Amino acid sequence: MESSNNTQSPAVRLKKSESSFEAAIREGLGNYPKRLPSRFIYDKEGDALFRRIMDMPEYYLTNCETEIFEQQKVQIIDALEPLGEGFDLVELGAGDGSKTRILLDEIIRRDMDFRYLPIDISQNALSGLSKKLVAEFTELEILPQQGTYFDILEEMQQWKERPKVILFLGSNIGNLLHPQAIDFLQKLRAVMGPSDLLLLGCDQKKEPQIVLDAYNDPAGITEAFNKNLLERINREYGADFDTERFIHWETYDPESGTARSYLVARESFEVTIPDLDMQVNFEAWESIHTEISQKYDNRTLEWIAGETGLEIAASFTDSRGYYKDYLLQVPK
Ligand SMILES: C[S@@+](CC[C@H](N)C(=O)[O-])C[C@H]1O[C@@H](n2cnc3c(N)ncnc32)[C@H](O)[C@@H]1O
């Protein structure tokens, strides 16, 4: 699915190292300890499961960011007014855009000159998003781009004609540990012009049980989401993973603010992946690390921004202080 072309915009070539599911399986399941990157959860089934996660009462992140946008869209879009002469609104990992539409609505209401460039590894997500937004906002100029963040960052080097407002919402940054996040933001900083802005959604540290529940709900939706990595290997490469043989396991370290998702084998067994000519052995209680969901506080974010060469211009939080959107700018 990562290699399928987008019919509405030029196809973006994906770098094999970052975007090939096959390479990730070979490397991640061929090594010890085993790991599979969470970005490969998002195929059609993974996108649908993530939409169900966003509706779960335990997954507070979506409600918090929705509340921030609904209550503070005026202040957020006020900060973009200096770019009123025309800008590109670039969204990294746009997903279904259900929250972004609140900001789009406010920008359109003010008749600002802009075009919207959503980027996602999932062509399925982009197609759904485009269809929905085109129906809702008839005048919206939308240019979806399929690819990974890093592919698109390279492409962005050429988008210099107009200032950019980059949206990185939904705590997508939280899928990166601090050194990777700093590296990522430095690359983003390198393609930002002096008046470009970055709106960065960051889940905040909070009562540990609330964090754990968001990634381990009693209905098993987050479990199914995590296990979609294995189901996807079954579907795309003919593997014989029996996902019942794995436990979905979540941990949260309140000191580092890092939540981690694992799949843990209940017993020893062998899995065959015929299309990749691979056999994978699992020992009893061996794990596959699948996802990082990093939580932040102001101090950490200030440090990360400083390391990146950006500064915090403003921040917007929800009524419970669970989540923050930071507006980052290039120091004047
Ligand atoms: C957790 S969802 C969040 C979606 C949306 N930003 C929101 O706030 O609701 C993450 C989205 O980012 C996309 N994604 C994950 N890793 C990616 C990567 N490395 N490059 C591009 N897109 C990625 C997924 O396909 C998915 O649609």
TrEMBL record:
Domain Histidine-specific methyltransferase SAM-dependent: residue ranges: 22-329
Entry GO MF terms: methyltransferase activity
Highest taxon, organism lineage: Bacteria
Keywords: Methyltransferase, Transferase
One of the protein's GO biological processes: methylation
Pfam families (alphabetical): Methyltransf_33
Protein name per the record: Dimethylhistidine N-methyltransferase
Source organism: Robiginitalea myxolifaciens
Taxonomic path: Bacteria, Pseudomonadati, Bacteroidota, Flavobacteriia, Flavobacteriales
